[in-house]
What does this fold into?
Amino acid sequence: MTFEVHAQGAIHVFDCFSCAIHRMAPICEHCRVQIIGQGVEAEGHWYCGAHCARAEGKVGIVDRV
It folds into this structure.
């Protein structure tokens, strides 16, 4: 069985969640890890956490626990 993911005007078809994650997960702009779960967005850029955002000079970013 397959499923579709609709994102940004495109339709992606997958047969497993791991393939969908590999294709669709954003990449941290500091450490280059795929962001699976909660990431942080600052000024249009995605980071895996506040630490990486601060390392890129973003201020006022905190992780929520």
Summary: Helices lie at 17-24, 50-55. The beta strands are 3-7, 10-14, 40-42, 45-47.
